[in-house]
C-alpha cells in the first residue's frame, strides 16, 4: 500500500480500526471501517478510514492499490449516506490536506448536506494544494497511468 506500514503507536483512528475503542462502526471490512464524526459538520457526517495506517493524502501515489483503496472508501461512504440520508439532495466526499488535517490517519469525510451550522462549509473549501480535496479529484490525481503495449 502507500503507507507508513505499521500501526502508529498513538493513533486514535488505528485504535478504532482495530475495534479497541467503544466507537460504533457503521461499516467494517478487511480494508476500511466507517463511523460517525464526533464533531459533525452536516446533517450526516461520517468518516471512512483505511484499516492500514496511511498518514495523509500526501502518502498516496499513482498506484492501482492506492486508487483501489480510495475508490472503495468512496463507495462505502456513498452507500452509507444513501442508506442513512436518502432524502439528502447534496453530498460532499473529500479529504483535508496537510497541514489542515486534524488526525494523521487518512480519512474520507462523507457529508450529507446541509452543513450544521452553515458556517462549517468553510472547513470544506477547496484551496488548491491546501484545504479540502474532493474524493473525485484525488482519484484523478492518483489514477495509475495506463501502460501502452
UniProtKB/TrEMBL annotation:
Active site positions, chain numbering: 109 (tele-amp-histidine intermediate)
Keywords from the UniProt entry: Hydrolase, Nucleotide-binding
Motif (Histidine triad motif): 105-109
SUPFAM superfamilies: HIT-like
One Pfam family of this chain: DcpS_C
Transmembrane regions listed in the UniProt entry: none
Superkingdom of origin: Eukaryota
Molecular function in Gene Ontology: adenylylsulfatase activity; nucleotide binding
Domain (HIT) ranges: 12-120
InterPro entries on file: Histidine_triad_HIT, HIT-like, HIT-like_sf
Protein's name according to its UniProt entry: HIT domain-containing protein
Originating organism: Acacia crassicarpa
Amino acid at each position: 500500500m502507500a503507507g507508513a506500514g505499521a500501526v502508529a503507536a498513538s493513533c486514535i483512528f488505528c485504535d478504532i480500526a482495530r475495534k479497541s475503542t467503544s466507537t460504533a462502526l457503521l461499516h467494517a471490512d478487511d480494508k476500511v471501517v466507517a463511523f460517525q464524526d464526533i464533531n459533525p459538520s452536516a446533517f450526516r457526517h461520517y468518516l471512512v478510514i483505511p484499516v492500514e495506517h496511511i498518514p495523509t493524502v500526501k502518502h498516496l501515489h499513482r498506484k492501482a492499490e492506492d486508487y483501489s483503496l480510495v475508490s472503495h472508501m468512496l463507495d462505502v461512504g456513498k452507500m452509507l449516506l444513501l442508506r442513512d440520508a436518502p432524502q439528502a439532495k447534496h453530498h460532499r466526499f473529500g479529504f483535508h490536506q496537510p497541514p489542515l488535517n486534524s488526525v494523521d490517519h487518512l480519512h474520507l469525510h462523507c457529508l450529507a448536506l446541509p452543513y450544521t451550522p452553515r458556517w462549517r462549509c468553510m472547513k470544506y473549501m477547496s484551496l488548491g494544494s491546501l484545504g479540502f480535496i474532493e474524493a473525485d479529484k484525488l482519484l484523478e490525481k492518483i489514477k495509475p497511468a495506463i501502460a501502452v503495449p
